[in-house]
Amino acid sequence: MLNRSNGNRGISLQGTASVGLTADLVRPRNFSSKTVFDGHMASVVKAEGQTELTHFIHGEDEMKVMNAVLTGAAIFVLSAPAIFAQSTTTNDPPQTIQQRKENQQDRIGQGVQSGQLTAGETKNLETKEAGLNKEERTMRSEDDGHLTAADRTKLNNQQNCLSNQIYDDKHNGAVQHDGPGEVGQRKENQQDRIAQGVKSGQLTPGETAKLEKQQQGINREESGMREANGGKLTGADKKALNQQQNRASRNIYNKKHNGRKQ
Q1: pLDDT 10s digits, 132-190
Q2: Residue 250 falls inside a structural domain
Q3: For residues 150 and 166, what is the distance between their CA atoms, to the nearest angstrom?
Q4: I want to staple 32 with a disulfide (CB 3.0 to 4.6 A). Which of 46, 93, 136, 247 is the partner?
Q5: Three-state SS at 206
Q6: What residues contact residue 9 under an 8 Å CB cut-off, 6+ apart?
Q7: Residue 34 belongs to what domain range?
Q8: What is the share, in percent, of the chain residues with pLDDT greater than 90?
Q9: How far is CA 218 from the centre of its chain?
Q10: Residues 224 and 130 both lie in one domain
Q11: Rounded mean pLDDT of 119-143?
Q12: What's the CA gap between 12 and 2, in Å, rounded?
């Protein structure tokens, strides 16, 4: 901000100013004194440890300095949006094939844990993910462990399709119904353990698909039991389901600790 002092013809510059505009982003300098031009002689200005040269100003030179400062400030204000826009533009590199697989698994794991994905939906998604992994291994075996540009394009297109299906399955209104009581709690616990294994990489897509197929079978059996008994489970039903969940629990543990990683 520029002010004329009443007692003399000096110019006061308060706040911050930019000096020496270039194409690069200008770093503002905080002046150590409010008075830049006092009387007929410019004061010594210190900015960021640097000392500007003093300059004598007489008569009409004072107005020239004012015009120069105002013109410089106007140029900076007009060019600032473009400068800042250019400085904030980022060109992030595309995700690698491995990063995309990890992201898909994280999304599936979150859907399992939240109940947005049923056991059947998870089984189908992980079966497809396992198929993509197998196809990638085949591609690499044919090119000394590398992926060609065509391979990457094909895999990315397939991951795009899978990504759309993950979204659709998580937002189709079908949810995992665990139900009340011990049977429901066990189903929920199993899904949480599977979800954790998916997100941590302890479970491969193929292993997850097999575990969820087992859970899907238990869910179908429970539905049949309830349908045969007016929506309820008998003591024998609960015992049979718990025994099946015991086997499923051991499978989950073994697959999470067999040393295989996603």
Answers
A1: 999 999 999 999 999 999 999 999 999 999 999 999 999 999 888 777 788 999 999 99
A2: yes
A3: 24
A4: 46
A5: helix
A6: 39, 40, 62
A7: 2-88
A8: 58
A9: 35
A10: yes
A11: 95
A12: 6
pTM > 0.90: yes or no = no
Residues 211 and 255: beta-carbon distance below 8 Å: yes
Does residue 262 lie within any of the structural domains? Answer: no
Domain assignment present for residue 138? The answer is: yes
H or E element, residue 250 = helix 235-256
Instruction: Quote the CA–CA distance of 70 and 18 in Å, as a whole number.
Output: 11
Are the C-beta atoms of 183 and 238 separated by less than 8 Å?
A: yes
Region 227-248: what's the mean pLDDT?
95
**Which of 88, 110, 129 corresponds to the end of one domain?**
88
Task: Identify which of 140, 111, 136 has the alpha carbon closest to the alpha carbon of residue 208.
Answer: 111
Residue 105 sits in the same domain as residue 76: no
24: confidence class by pLDDT, cuts 50, 70, 90: very low
pLDDT digits (tens, 9 = 90+) for 36-50: 444 444 444 444 444
pLDDT at 55 over 70: no
3-state secondary structure of 42: strand
Q: Is residue 62 part of a domain?
A: yes
* 60 and 175 share one domain: no
48 and 132 in a single domain? The answer is no
